[in-house]
Specification:
The chain is built from eight helices and 13 strands. By secondary structure, the chain is of the alpha/beta class. The chain is globular, with a radius of gyration of 17 Å.
Length: 261
């Protein structure tokens, strides 16, 4: 696997980022229809956690086969690999904390051997970080967060991609929430305050930590130039339907992560 993937600018269409999917591909397809997504021109980038919780985990992981779809590795995706394919990566094989299981992954037991192997192969292809060029800003996608100990994107991306001494950064990319718990609802303009701005990149987009505060509801969270867009669209049934801003999938233009579609 490539731990860090750099995508060139999409000069023919849109790059759109979506929050955690958690096995809800059918709901996602409804959202793509709503925004008139064009697979021949547009690209969809997910902040990770394709699997668990929803009813369509394997079907959602199959998005990794689509040429227009990209996703970073989330903690739930990593948890499946640690539980069923620990030897796929030196990190999961050599450090017990990678064995932390998010859910029981019962859906994996429902797959036949061929489907399970295909699903694991799809999850193995997911990088820990994406860097996306645009005609304007440069944007990074990391599932959980970039730890505060990194003062700039280059230092973090170098450590993520490196063979030596990168395990801690890769673990943080999937699991940490230290900054996310401080995120506040994003204003309509989206200009970052100076605190906690990550140098060397224009925007960083995350998922992992649900941005919801009942009864007000779901929101895009922001600190500096870092944005969290998991607005719990994967919740089952009518959960949160009484919130002022009910659970929903957030989709944002990659160059304007404060401006949902």
């Amino acid at each position: 696997m490539e731990r860090l993937i750099r995508l060139p600018a999409n000069t023919s269409g849109r790059d759109i980022v979506v929050g955690d999917l958690h096995g809800q591909r059918s709901r996602l397809e409804g959202e793509l229809e709503r925004i008139a997504f064009e697979p021949a021109r547009d690209r969809l980038i997910c902040v990770g956690d394709l699997v668990d919780r929803g009813p369509e985990s394997a079907f959602t992981a199959a998005l990794m086969d689509e040429p227009w779809f990209y996703s970073v590795r989330g903690n739930h995706d990593l948890s499946v690999l640690a539980a069923f394919d620990a030897g796929c990566d030196p990190d999961t094989a050599g450090d017990r904390r990678w064995d932390l299981i998010c859910d029981d992954h019962a859906w994996m037991a429902e797959l036949d051997a061929a489907a399970a192997a295909t699903t694991l192969a799809r999850l193995r292809r997911m990088p820990y970080a994406l860097e996306i060029a645009t005609v304007g800003p440069t944007v990074a996608i990391v599932h959980a967060e970039v730890p505060q100990r990194f003062g700039n994107w280059q230092a973090f991306s170098d450590e993520i991609a490196g063979e030596a001494n990168g395990a801690a950064a890769r673990y943080a990319a999937c699991w940490e929430r230290n900054l996310a718990y401080q995120a506040a609802p994003c204003d309509a303009v989206g200009r970052p305050e100076q605190a906690n701005v990550l140098a060397g990149i224009d925007h960083v987009i995350h998922g992992h930590t649900p941005m919801a505060s009942p009864p007000e509801g779901a929101f895009i969270g922001r600190i500096g130039n870092r944005y969290w867009i998991d607005t719990v669209g994967w919740l089952p049934g009518q959960t949160g339907s009484d919130w002022k801003s009910p659970p929903h999938f957030t989709l944002v233009p990659v160059e304007r992560p404060w401006d949902p579609l």
